[in-house]
């Protein structure tokens, strides 16, 4: 039987489009024009259109899943890529060579993420993950003239390779004890063992394999304590790539994590195990990320630590999903996964918007230092107001989308019961988070403009302006009218029911 | 009435904010009058609301309800009763007054008024919201403009004061959020409607009630502020620009006590009874502590700020007294005193902050010792200031007396010893108020202030409504008492036993 290519069409389309971008650059444009950014965005928009009408089901021998969950995350990946490309204009201007590769690699990377969200088994998940990370290594090192960018690329490569090795080792263990790599079959094998009462045989191998997979994916997601690479890479990489890393790559890792734990290890025998592991990872992320972010003076590093903390909040949703039964009558299972999906979606706008402002600022002033933002309100009311909105959303102040997202994950955690401590940690650390987010607002609005500064208005490139405006609209509008996106997120979560 | 009066009161200032944002920074007059206009409209609406409010019933009125996020049972649900109607009126009045009083702001005028109007949106929303989620949203929305208003236009230590206020209040709010979620998931069907939750109130488990009550209390107590959560207040009130201090003292502090009466009392009756003694004790500590600290102040504005801690203590003491009397009628004297105190403290302290601002604008100092004998130079200002000083210390015939009297009468019925200690507060209040009046207005004239000018017409315009209301309530408190009575009886019936 032929595989159903309808389900895989968006993926294949984007792959071909990436190849077209490479070829156009090679033969026609020769890295002389920025037209490729528009071509890439058109391709991404078409892909969004294709994703929205793709049929659901499984194909390629159950390896490839197309469902509400993959669809939702595909929107996030594609949206984040469009925003990243739109904010790349000033960076691409500095490139004399390899402009086409820059865009092409971004598209390839996105393709990898889309495959990742659709992976139905461990090996195809691994391959998709490698497609994503290998391209990201190159992109992180794309500021070839900068030592820090090269360092970022190399660091990312080495740690990425180690984490892949750990991940593979975990996969091999799971394959060893269950005899399959397919998520659904792993689940049924474990359930069968549970029913037959032989689950205790090779129990430690199961757990060790699961822990290794969690650790491997934890590296990709920059969860504490696997986060050491993130601040250096975030600071060294070109800023549009940093924003892409902090959102799309995080979402991709998360999609894989959800597929593994909620797909393969959804058996009651394991839920408490990974539930508590992820709860501890989430708590560490929120505590370490938020406290360390307070100490940063560079905005990219600060946003890097902030995104480590945000990953912690996202994981609270997954923790909630580890509760199969609840005392409250709702299904924490679905509730948690829809909450974390919604969180990622809202986080995309706020975080990529904040990076877009940082890009505009550093393009004009050549600085990423937070103290240089002093008096920005006078030089650019637009940039400072948008930045304020993004930061307040990240801090979780209503009526912005970040508040709704936080409310949703914490509601899920309380619905599941047993994790009130995690909710309290999350909320208390969000007060710390407000401190450093407000510090930037304070620089922009409260501190006097330095005397030496020119007070001329900042001109922001049109595409970047559009990025910021879209992000502002997303941050406010989804915060006020979240229902359509909550419905989408619920549709994504239904996949894991039962 | 069919037209959505509460929504209009909430969102007209938002429209005003948007209009102001589209004006040019240089069109200072246009910005001022636009803002005044958009804060006058809610005030007019609040009169319409007062005229149409049926005070004979404790039923919620002017109800609006629309589905907002059905997946999480969040509704856009507004309504008003005897608790919220006086507060909505006070908010509309003080917002308008404060905006007029802010006409002397010259720095970054456009942003100032835009933030001020946004602040009004949040305040109105808190007093009108009947959905817990909506309540929380409005509660938090206020923090952002407040942060900017203190941080940009404040005094020397404004940045510290602004972030302290922001973090402190957010810290409190997160406990409220946890409490909301805990209640939400303990109801069946799950609901965020405050009215529904109140109906289920008695059925909540006692341990849940105690925990959630404590969570709510942290949030509300920080806002009030109840000793020992008050440390943000002196910084914020003193550093804030005059009009913002008026709003802080006049409206924001009341949100704490309003929240306790609207939410904690009827929703968690067991928790309320469990903690009522603690409220009374904290109230008395606040009364005495605030008064003692006020006595030690050298700065006029700090004195008024700490006097708020003391005066809000009366609210707490008043509300801690509730029971069903032997003849079956609910005893509402204490809670009435609390409500009267909320209202009259808003008027009196608001006016005092305005007047301190008037003096500071001219003298550029607020040090009590730097003045002396000002009455001879500025008799009108001196009389108005003394009027409100007397109101603040509870002179009979003015609104402050009514509230303190009710609180004490109520308090003696249940906690005679605690209330007895609280009465000392009256003496201490008289002490610091009279000392202030004496040092600033009486005694030998300090020739340094030879060129001090009299209070101007705009400034008199801003305090005039407050004078009238302070006097009116002091002489004839019945209309306000009637307005609230039915609602308060209902609340006491729900919690008293």
Major sheet: arrangement of strands of chain A: 1-2
Strand content of chain A: under 5%
- Total number of β-strand segments of chain B? 4
Q: How large, in whole angstroms, is the Cα Rg of chain A? A: 22 Å
Structure class of chain B? mainly alpha
Structural class of chain A: mainly alpha
Global outline of chain B? globular
Distance between the amino and carboxyl termini of chain A? 29 Å
Enumerate the spans of chain A where pLDDT stays under 50 for 5 or more consecutive residues: none
Tally of alpha and pi helices of chain A: 20
How many individual helices of chain B? 20
Q: How do the SSEs of chain B run, as a string of H and E?
A: HHEEHHHHHHHHHHHEEHHHHHHH
Multimeric organization: heterodimer
Task: Give the rounded overall mean pLDDT of chain B.
Answer: 91
Order of helices and strands of chain A: HHEEHHHHHHHHHHHHHHHHHH
Q: Calculate Rg of chain B over CA atoms.
A: 22 Å
For the sheet with most strands of chain A, the description reads:
2 strands, antiparallel
